[in-house]
Every structure is written in structure tokens, then in C-alpha cells.
Amino acid sequence: MVGELRYREFRVPLGPGLHAYPDELIRQRVGPDGHPEYQIRWLVLRRGEDGEGGPGQVDCKAEHILLWMSDDEIYANCHKMLGEDGQVIGPSQESAVEAGTLDKSVLEEMETDVKSLIQRALRQLEECVGTVPPAPLLHTVHVLSAYASIEPLTGVFKDPRVLDLLMHMLSSPDYQIRWSAGRMIQALSSHDAGTRTHILLSLSQQEAVEKHLDFDSRCALLALFAQATLAEHPMSFEGIQLPQVPGRLLFSLVKRYLHATFLLDQLNSSTQESGAPAELSEEKGRLDLEFSMAMGTLISELVQAVHWDYTSSRPGSSARSPCSIFQPQAADASRGLPLSQVRHSFRRRSRRFRPRTEFASGNTYALYVRDVLQPGMRVRMLDDYEEISAGDEGEFRQSNSGVPPAQVWWESTGRTYWVHWHMLEILGFEEDNEDLMEAADHQGAVVSGVLNGVLPSWRWKPMTELYAVPYVLPEDEDPEESAHLSQAEWWELLFFIRKLDGADHQEVLQMLQENLDGEHVLDDEILSELAVPVELACNLLEALPQRLDDSALRDLLNCRVYRKYSPKAPAGQLAYPPLLQAQAQEDATRAEEEEPRSQRPGTALEYLAEDLGPAGQLLVDLEKALGCTGPQDGEVRPCLLQLQRQPQPFLALLRSLDTPAGKALHLAALRILVQLVDFPEALLLPWHEALDACVACLKSPSTDYEVLQELIVFLHRLTSGSRDYAVVLNQLGAQDAISKALEKHPGKLKSVPELRDALSKCEKHTHLYWSLTTNILGGCIQMVLGQIEDHRRTHHPINIPFFDVFLRYLCQGSSVDVKEDKCWEKVEVSSNPHRASKLTDRNPKTYWESSGSTGSHHITLHMRQGVCVRLLTLLVAREDASYMPALVAVYGGNTTSSLNTELNSVNVMPCASRVTLLENLTHFWPILQIRIRRCQQGGIDTRIRGVEVLGPKPTFWPAFREQLCRHTRLFYMVRAQAWSQDIAEDRRSLLHLSSRLNGALRHEQNFADRFLPDEEAARALGKTCWEALVSPLVQNITSPDEDGVSALGWLLNQYLECRESAHNPQSRAAAFSSRVRRLTHLLVHVEPCEPAVAPWPKGGSGSHDWGSTAPRSLPGSILRNLTRCWRAVVEEQVNTFLASHWRDDDFVQRYCERVHNLQKSSSELFGPRATFLLALQSGCAGALLQLPFLRAAHVSEQFARHIDQRIQGTRVGGAQGMETLAQLQRSLEAALVFSGLEVATTFEHYYQHYMADRLLSLGPSWLEGAVLEQIGPCFPNRLPQLMLRSLRTSEELQRQFHVYQLQRLDEELLKLEDTERKLQVGRETGGQEPEREQEEDTRAAATAAIAEDEEEENEDLYYEGVMPKVSVLVLSPRCWPVTSICHTLNPKTCLPSYLRGTLNRYSNFYHKSQTQPAPEGGPHRRLQWTWLGRAELQFGDQTLHVSTVQMWLLLNFNNLKVVSVESLLAHSELPPHLLHRAIGPLTSTRGPLDLQEEDDIPGGVLKIRDDTEEARPRWGSVWLIPPQTYLEAEDEEGRSLEKRRNLLNCLVVRMLKAHGDEGLHIDRLVCLVLEAWQKGPCPPQLLISSLGKGATCSSTDVLSSILHLLGKGTLRRHDSRPQVLSYAVPVTVVEPHTESLSPGSSGPNPPLTFHTLQIRSRGVPYASCTDTLSFSTFR
């Protein structure tokens, strides 16, 4: 199942070591479909570091997630909450039972006492106004607190008089009364969340409550709220700089938050009430509207309180492109990019491993390969090395300390071979290679798309994109609905209408009434259900800005409805001057060319005002108003009111204290600020937003004394006016800054003790403010997540105003940089720590100088939590000469003791001043260390002028991503479990899974397009949804049941069965097939093509990515499960076919057709993905592995026979030849599955026989090499490839022999010329007679010498006819199956003289060509002529194509008219079946001979056929070569192969049994088996003769046997060392007959080299001039 059961309960994995566990049923409601829904509290548990459950599990801060679930989901996930009848047990009613235990009369008496005590406390409180509270009042309050702790009396304390009493007590100046009020509120709020919310909400909603509460009372109420909500939403914002929110804003946020939570509680409880459906619907609609408006108000104030409205970019500036959020980002990342960027991005994606060209030396590259390469990875050979060629690919197996160190299984040789590290190129695992191949195809599509100006797409996807992303297809839009605002848009607009007061509100309602024809009187109920036309909305948006205040107007400009329907302002005229005029004029001013500041007269404040544009005039006016003698309130207050509306100039003035603007500006600003705090209106300005500039000014060592003194006076007066700002200063670390200032100016600063006392008194409230900010943010995030979950479940639109704004701010990335001290916590140096401050003083004239040995200098930066470095720069100076660094390295780690990861190494040029060390890190390193490895000119110590760090500002996105992904994962894993339960109960429901998944994915896609403009957030949501929903479902539907069949496997089998009948679009089969295709394409359209992640250093933890809390390989696991299921389906289909049709004559053709149909089905279901095509081949291989040996041998023989027939059929040419070629191609594709299987050995055996017969009878062709190139991996011994290679060697020998013959001829002619010259000289010197005698003697001697020395070789020198052309093929028994198919030929007795001489000369030539001497004592290679080969004879006008045996037989008729078969057998010593096989075609209707039976002559006689007897072809070519003979796998030869396999099995098992559990390395096992085969007992003699190789056995045969035993389970691999094999279970192995393996001879037989010949002639000679036809050999 998708999760894990613990105590019969379902646990959902939420992240690394985190699980969610259903704990309690909270409440019940009626869902939108009328069925009940239950709210379940899921506890979040964390596992121990050991990853085990039990004691290692601890409560994770009592975290929990509230989730609404249906009956089906409860049944599938929460068994504990089901009763004995299977029904859900309702919420607990324990509180009601407790209430019933009290007597009614007693309860009434206690209620009367409480009312009287409340009345008495109010009276006593009024009497003691302005005096010390009397003891009776305190006693009365104490008794009321005791009564408040009794839960049945909670209703009495909801009396409005209790709220009045609490308000009076909270606003009392006496501390004891306020403390007593807090005790009573604590007692009231301790019962349940509803009562606590009611009390807090009632107190906070009192009119002008802020006026009645002072700082202490407000803090007491805030503390109560913080305590009450502490455990509700425990979110961690560690590493995030939370905004500094003063108490006044916090209290307002608390009020908004309480109101929203109260309405949400009522909304969830309204469906439980009984009543008429219409009334319930009306009440729910009202609560829904009120809750949406309350949430909109809360979001609006929260956005302003945390400064998002100022610091964030303008809305809509970074819109996300509408693409699938579930597919990997790389699939769409290059859309719209320039071509160069597209190529660059894909180049980075495709290079998962670094090539050799990126390394400076081969040794460095070898070390990289050694460290990265893992067993099972694919590699490619870069250089030629012994038997392995460059470009060969294989799989890395293991390594050791030997030379060469790397063992790879090579596809080209079919075995392992050891090579060196630097010779290998890493390709990755099989799945990674497939991704990279498809990425490369996609790259071509992208580049082509960019060049053609169209959007790129995956090349295999249909144009309609239905199979690719069906959930992105736009839904049909109703024209009537498009003309009106949606409900969410209207409610967002209604939010601003409700913001209007009095006349403005009535005016807008009147506008609505007029445009809606006045059908109804508009009230809140009708307003919420209005269908507002777009035109009316535009009119309202045009009228609203003039009626809204600045805060509401800012919200309006940021909302979605305004951005979509806002009217356009006329050219040159601003639409809304109150807020936009300053910004517009500021942009215009910045666009103008500025005059240099040094040439403009004015004060420093005027310069600042000028930089601010027109808005800066407010500062000038404020300075003038405050500079007058005795500032006039009438002049200052208008400026303050204007600053409240436009606070940018005020914030700029305050932030100028943290700028190097100079002493004059700082003093001018402080003089204004000191006078400003005396006005009550000034305390309403946003001081908290820029107080960090004041603290920075305090900390700065360069701050002037006078400025520092004025600053302290200002801060003292500010904290005296409002203690809230004292809390803010504490949060900013003002006390440490003051201590540093005192260290610099001890005893000289005034007002420092008073300021420190004010800060110390408010220090206890610092944590309270931080907790409140955290709780409010966490609560808002939880409510937002709850709305998202409710939106998922009900599919109702989210109508909350600013919902997208809030999500946009939560999801936005880091757009603000943080420098220096805000990035790190502290800086440490290796030596001279007292000068470490010079690194961060921003002064290039100062420096830190080290002291120590060369290479020992370093600077250590302790980074702040979560800060990823964008830029790390080192400042140096060339005047430092030998002190200047030359080589700098940066290391990262989690602690100072684990700095072992080198991040970068930089060579520093002598002329450099700024050295960039790091850029754009994506991983957070807690510790960074800069190490100076070497100095210029061989220096020892170093000088560093400074260190600069630029980092991103921490945002809320990591925390929100964690919660968003947790809630999403829990929701969809629960749903996946419920859907899996339905499928397990009824497999037919799998047909509806496509529509279910498509609906869920489309919902998430639409939600992301609507609310998540940030690309990273959308991708995180899509990935989490996919992993939580699709991955568990795929795991469940692909897991086999008790019968061994999975649900998806059953569905795919049904699809294959009805595939042929699905061509009719009106049939049920077509509809069924369509659903299956949509489901499978939806499941596989998201593919894992993410870039590889570099391995973390050992011991490193890193930061968790909650967007991907599931295992990293989940998309890959989806594909693995699907391919495994498809493999099982294919295996079942092929098994059924083999069991039924393996004996059919057309078996191969039908098998190829079945495989072709499966390939088409795979493409239909999953697209042309290599993964599923490989699964198909694996399924076919699995079916073949289950066949018995003889049946598998029969299948392999049928394939070899079929390929042989098709290769011969392609010689026909024309349309028939093309059709035969297509059939050959299909059969080759189907035969590829033999690669790597045991059956490949038998397939090679039969293919070798048929190929040898084909090559010798028909000759080689280009098709032979093309076939071997395609199915070469199917031959483990590569014997067919060696056969073709031997043919090429023979051709080269034939060319050399031709040159040799010419050389011999030239030598003979030269000898004759020498002889004639000697005779001529003799005649001239002697007499006539002596000369004649001498000439005769010389001729006789020469003739005798020639006859004696070269009689055999020159037999044909005096042949008067035209010499035939003879070609000799040298066949090696190592690769040619000559032992079983050839017979020796004696040229002296069987061939004419003109052929014997050529053969003799070739024998001499071959003997001389063997330049390498034979081993000492070993035999020389010798030639043995065979009857194999072919010839062309001229018979009249006919050209007869015959074999060598037929040529010899026909040449006999040149001398004889009748030849008996008996004499031919005696003369040739050929077996009778071979001679009769040659006679058959010659005596056929196309042949030239007749076979006549004679009584006295056994076998009959042969004679030349008379032309008058029977019509036959008289000219042209006649093909008489005997047809191919095929073997039978079931005959003795097949059984001999089985016996050899069984003998090898026995040897392997015996070896492993002898070594016990330790096992043997596979290479060692192969060596031992081969050694035992040579020394031990051998197979029977019949086995030796049938194999044709004697008693030989290769390593490939042993590996094939090992593979067979592994598949049967007889052997097993060690878990930690897969290359080590051991014996697993007993197995019955058939022992062959026990005959001696060693031959009977004492020594080894000399190796034989078999030869055949091709005979050609240059003309057509006739043996006689008679009319009798004769046979003339010319080939």
C-alpha cells in the first residue's frame, strides 16, 4: 500500500523521518455531495536517527494537521475510528456527559452566585477609582476566577457585564487588578478552543479598546493570546528575519485573526446544525461571505505590517508561463530563450558526467572516474586497448588494486575485460542514458522550433497534446459567464465597497441599483449573490479610487480584479493623484539628466529631498516648520498627516542614518527626528520599519561622536514616548550596539543609562512580540492551507480577497541581497585575531596580515542559518608584493572539523584587486573557509584587504513550502489510498482512474496558474502532488495480487485482447481502449530528467528540501513499476504464444507479427519510449528463459533457418525481394532478444552452420555484414563475425597469391632467357656439332631439373586451353564449422592437371607466407583441401552454377559417356548422402544428366541427357547448387548440446558446493570450470563428434550456464558483493555419460586449417571439335 500500517493504522510519510498518524476525530459535517465528512487530527511524528520505529519515535512539538475526510477515506486509512459495524464513530461527547453529572439545582445556585459576584466586583471597582484597590475587591475577583475554572459555568461568564468588568480591570492603573483580570481570563479560556476564542474575541472587539488599554494591559492580553495559540500552529521560522511589528499593530492583527478564526469555526460548525436545507444554505452563504471579508482584512493588514507592500516588486511583473507544473522544468525551461541560451542549457543538462577534455591531465581524469564510477554504470571506451576498440560500450562490474584496475562487461565481445580508468567515459545508469537520449532528441526539437519560430515540443508527442498534458487543455468557457465577473472577482470588489463609509457607500450602492434595473433592494445577502457585468465592474473600478483612503487604495492597486479590469488613464494624465502622483513624478525626475551634486548649491537635507523627487519636498517643509522659534502645531501637523499617507520620505530620512552621507545630513536628520517625537501624531508613523538603520549607525565604528550623542538622545525620547519601540529596539539588538558605543566613548555619552533602563524594562516583552508575530503568521498560513484543502475537496472557488497576493508574497524568492555582517555570524582567522576586524571595516587601506608557515593561513566564516552565498569576493592589493595571495581555495562544511569539501580554487593574478571566489551557490554551507595556499613571489605570510559576501535575503518560502508540501502530500496520499482500495475491490474501477487523476491534476494546474505566479512554488506543488497521488497509485495497481496478476496488468491484457476489435469508433472496445490509453499516457508523461546532484561529503547533513520530501527517484520508480508491469504482460502474452505455436511451420513469421503488434501497442500506450521497448524485449526474453532447453533450441534453430531463407530470398530482387527484405528486418528485430540469454549459444551454433553453407554456396554479400551488425550481440562467441573476417583475410591472401604467381612466371621466363643466352654463346665459340651436342645436353639437364624440382607445381604450365580462374578460401576451424560439414579432397586423384598445379602453387605460397615460426616442438600449420566450394561450368550455351562435387562429377563426362554412381563413390570417397545430394539437381528437369537404374550396377549410371528427349533450357545461367539443408533441434545434435550444458551445470554446482557459503568470484569460477573441463571426465564420444569442436569449451559457454543457474535460483549473488556467487538450493542436474575428456592420443593433434576453392576461367574453351557437348570449368 502507499503508506505504512502501525497498530493497524495508516502512516503517511511527509518527509525525511516524518510521518503523519491519524489521532482523533474532531468534528463532523455534511459535505457538498450530501455525504458526511469528518475532520481528523493527524499527528506529525518524527523517527529516530536510526530510521526505526518504536522507541526512536518522539513527539515532534505536538505538530498536527487537520484534514477533512470522507467515509471511503476513513475506511481506507483510519481503521481505529471505525466501529464494529464498519461505521465511523462520531465525535466524543464527554463534555456533555460531565455537565450532566452536576445537579441542576446546584448549578442554578452557582450561576446566581456568579451573577451577584460580578455585580459586586463592578461596584467595588467603581468605588476605588484613583485609589489603592481594597482587599474585598481582590477577594471577589479571586472567587470569580475559581468559578470560571468550572466548565459548566462557562455560559454564565459570557454575560456582557463580565466583559465590561474585564475591560475595567485591564485598563486599571493598578498592577494587582490587571494581574487578577489575567487570572480570570486564563481560567475562562482553559476549557476549550471555542470558549477561548470567544473570550479573546469579545475583549478585542470592544469599541476603542486600544484607548482603554495602556502598554501593560495590552501586553497582558497579548500574552494571553500568545499562550492560548502557542500549540495551535507550531511553525518554525528559523533563519527568517521576521518583521519588527509594534504592539499597536500586533493588537490589531490579533483582533483580525480572532475574528477570522471565529467565523471559520462557525462556518465549519454550521453544517452540523439541523434545520431546513434552504435556511442552512442561506446561513452558510452569509458566513462564507463574512469569513472571506474577514480574511481579506487580515491579509491586507498583515501584508502592510510585514512591509510586503513596500519591499516586494510590483504585482504581475513576473508572471509564470502557462505550462505543466508536473513535468520537469527542463522540458519547458528553454521556451522563449535565444538559441545560444537554449543550446547552453541543454549542453549543461546532457553532461551529467565530466568528459576527459575538461581535465588538465589523464591522471586527474582517472582519479575522477575512479571516485564517481559505480557498479552497474554504462561506460564507453575512449582508446583502443588490446581486444577492446574505441567506441565500444559496456557495463562496469568491479575494480581492484591490480593493473588494469577496472573490469567491464563489453557488448562487443560478450565478456568482461580489464582496462585502465583513463580509457573510460562514464555514461551513467541505463535509465539515465535513456533520459539523456530523449533530452538530446528534445534539444534538436527545441532548436528546430526556435529556428522556425514555433514553440518546441517533444518529438513523439501528438500535435493535439492530449496525451501529454490533458489537464492543461482549456475548458469550454460559457460566453454568458465570461461577460460577468466570477464570484471570487466580485467578492474582491465587494470588499472595497464595504470599506466605504456613509455617503460614498450609498453612492456606490445606488450605482449598482441603477445598473441592475432596481429589481431588489440591495442588502448584504443579495450583494453576495449578484452577477455583475464586466462593464459595470469597470465603472466601479473607475469610481472607487477617489473614495478610498491610501491604505485601501494600495490594496486595490495590488488586487487581481483591478489588474484585470482596471480602466486606462488618459495619456499625460494620472488616474489617481493621491497615491500615484509621487511615484510618477519620481520616475520622471529620475529619467532626466541630473546635474552633478558638487555643482548644485544646497544643504545635505535638500540633496536628500531632491533625490526623493517631488515627495522629498515634505522633508523641506517639515524642517522649516520645526526650525521656527517655537514650532507651530498648525504647520507641523499637516506635514505629519501627509507623511502618514506617504511615509516614503520619512523612512528615507530615518534610513539616511545608515548611509555614508556625512555628518551634516546625519545631524540634520536627527534634529528633525528629536523634535518630531514630541508630537503625538508622529508616534503613528512607521518608525519600526527603519529603526534597523539607527541600530546600524550605533554599531558602525565610523559614526561620529556628535552624531552618536544625538542618536542616543533621539532613541531615549522615542522609547519614552512609546514603549513599543523599546521592544522593537530590543529585537534589533540595540543593547549590544549601545555597549559597543560605550566601549568606544566610555563615560562621554549622555542619556545612555536612561535608554538602557528603558530597554531593559521592555526586554521581557521582546519574546512575546516575536511569539505573537510567529503565531499570527503561522495561523494565517494554516488557514490558507485549510482553504486550499477545502478547495481541493469541494472544488468550490476560493473567494477570499487578496488570497493570491498573500500566496505571492509567501512564495516569492529572494530579491533583496544581504551583505557582510548580515550574512555571517562571526569571522575567525588563523593568526593575529586582533586584526580580524580589518577584513570587514570596508576600508581598502587597512588589512589583516597573517603570521605562520606557508599554506597555514585561512579565514573562517560562520554563516547565518539558511544563507546561500551569491558572491564571495576577496580584496587584495598588488602593492603587497610577496604578501599578495597567489592561490586561494574555498572549503565548505557543517562544522570546523568537517571542512573537507573543496568548493573552488582560484589562481590570483599579480595585477588583481578583487578576486571572485564563489558565485551562486545553491547549497547552504554553515562554515566557509578561505585558505591561502600560496603567495606571490614565494612569500610566507599574506595580507588580505577585505572579504565581501553577498547573499540572498531569507524569505518565508522555505517555511511555507514545508507546510504546503506536507498538507498536499497528506491529502493526496490519503486519497490515493482510498482509490487504491476501490481498485482492489473492483478492478473495473481502474477505468475511471484516468478521469479521477485528470480532474485532480487539472485542479492543481488551475490553482497554480491562478494563485502561484512563482515558478519554483508551482513546480514544488506539482511535484509533491504527483509523488503523493500518482506514485502510490502506480505502486498499488502494478503490485501483483494473490494470483500473481496486478490490476494494471489485467487491464493491459484486456487492451491487447480487444485491440483488433477497437477499430470501430462506435464499439465498446474502442471506448475501453481509449480510456486505457488516456490512463497510461497520463501516468508516464512526467519523466525524471532532473540534473544529477553531486554527492554530499561524508558526514554532511545539508538542508532538507520539503518540496521533494519523498525519495528522489519517485518519478523513476513510477516508470520502473510501469515497465515492470508491462514486462510481465508481455511475458505472459509471449508465453501463451510459445506454448501454442512453437511447432508451427510459420512459427517465426507469426512470432515476429506478434512482437510487432506488441511494439505497436507499446507505442500506443506509452509512446515510443525506449524504457518500455526495453521492457518489451525483457518480457520476450523472460518467456524464452522459461522454455525447456530442447524447445528453446528449436526456437533458435527456427530463427536461424528463417533468417537464412530470407537472406537467400533477397537475391531475387524486385518487389518480392523488397518484401523479403522487410520480413528479414522484422525477424532481426525479434531475434535481438536472444542477446544475453542462454539460448544465444544455440542460436549462434545454428546460425553459424547455415551461414557457412550460404557463404560457400552463394558467396558473400553486403547483406551478411549488415545482418551481423544488427544482431551481433546475439552471438556470444562472435563466430559469425570471425567468419566474415576470415573471408576478408582470404581475399587478401588471394591478391597476394596473384602477385606470387606473376613472380613465379617472371622467374621461369628469366631462367629460359638465361639458358638461351648461354646456348647462343656456346654456338659462337665452338663448332656446329659440338654446339648442337652441348645444347641438347643443356636442354636435357634443364628439363630434368624442372621435372624433378617443380613437377607438381607446374603441372598446368603446358596446358593448351584457356586457364580457369581459381580462388582459394582459407577456412579456420576456430570459427568455421568445418568439422561436421566438410570432407577432404585429394587433388591428385580427383582434379585435372590444370587445376592441380594451381592448388600446388597455392600450397607452396601459403607455406612461405607463414613468417612466424611455430612454437618449439609444436606442429606447423598445414593445408587440407576440402570438397567445399562452388564452380561455374560452360556447357554449350549454358552456364551451370554447381558445387565443387558437382563440378568434379560433370568433368568426368568429358572423357566418359556413362559414369556409374558406384565408381564415383569409390573414386571420391564421399559419403553416399553427400554424393546423392549433389546428383539430385544435376538429374532434375533443369540439369544436364539422366540417372538410369541398372540391375547389375548398384546405384545406377549417369549419362548426358539427350536434347530430343526432354525440353530444357539451352542457354543462360542454370542454378544447380544443392539446396540448403537444415538441422533439427530435436535430433541427436540438439540433445548433445543439452548434455554439454548439463555437464557444465554439474561442474559449476560442484565448484560452488566445495567453497560453501564463502562462494567464488565469477571470474575465478569460470577459470576453475574450464580447467576441470580440460582435466576431468568428458562427454560421450557422440557428443564430441556432434559438436564438431572436440572436447573444447569456452568461457562464454560457462557464463551461459551460470546465467541459466542464476535464473533457476540454484546460485545466488552476495548482497554486498554481487560479483561473488554461491550455491543456493539443491538442483537436479542431468549428468552426461562419463568418458574421458582427453583424447586417446598421447599428444595434442596439430591444428587443422581447412581450405576450399573457387574456380574461374577467362574464356569458353571446347574440349573437342565434335558435336558432343563437354563441360568446361571457368570458375
Could you explain the architecture of this structure?
The structure is a single chain. The chain is α+β, with helices and mostly antiparallel strands. Helix content is 51%, strand content 12%. It contains 59 helices and 35 strands. Helix 24 packs antiparallel against helix 25 and helix 44 runs parallel beside helix 46. The longest helix is centred in the C-terminal third of the chain and has 47 residues.
Secondary structure blueprint with pairings:
Layout: E1 4-6, E2 9-15, E3 18-30, E4 36-46, E5 58-69, H1 71-77, H2 94-101, H3 104-127, H4 135-148, H5 160-170, H6 175-188, H7 193-204, H8 209-212, H9 215-228, H10 247-270, H11 277-305, H12 308-311, H13 339-350, H14 362-372, E6 378-381, E7 393-399, E8 406-410, E9 415-419, E10 424-428, H15 430-452, H16 479-482, H17 487-499, H18 502-515, H19 524-528, H20 534-543, H21 550-558, H22 560-565, H23 577-591, H24 604-611, H25 617-627, H26 633-645, H27 648-655, H28 663-676, H29 691-699, H30 705-721, H31 723-731, H32 734-744, H33 752-761, H34 764-794, H35 803-811, E11 817-819, E12 824-829, E13 848-849, E14 857-863, E15 871-875, E16 885-893, E17 901-907, E18 914-919, E19 927-935, E20 943-944, E21 946-952, H36 957-985, H37 993-1011, H38 1015-1037, H39 1047-1057, H40 1068-1084, H41 1114-1141, H42 1147-1166, H43 1170-1185, H44 1189-1209, H45 1214-1231, H46 1239-1258, H47 1262-1271, H48 1279-1325, H49 1328-1349, E22 1364-1371, H50 1378-1381, H51 1387-1390, H52 1393-1409, E23 1422-1435, E24 1437-1443, H53 1444-1451, E25 1458-1460, H54 1461-1468, H55 1472-1482, ...
Parallel strand pairs: 23-34, 24-28
Antiparallel strand pairs: 1-2, 2-3, 3-4, 4-5, 6-7, 6-10, 7-8, 8-9, 11-21, 12-14, 13-20, 14-19, 15-18, 15-21, 16-17, 16-19, 22-34, 23-24, 23-35, 25-27, 26-27, 29-32, 30-33, 31-32
Helix pairs in contact: 1-36, 3-4, 3-5, 4-6, 6-9, 7-10, 9-10, 9-34, 10-11, 10-34, 13-15, 24-25, 25-26, 28-30, 29-32, 30-31, 30-33, 31-34, 34-36, 36-38, 37-38, 37-40, 38-41, 39-41, 41-42, 41-43, 42-43, 42-45, 44-45, 44-46, 48-49, 48-52, 56-57, 56-58, 56-59
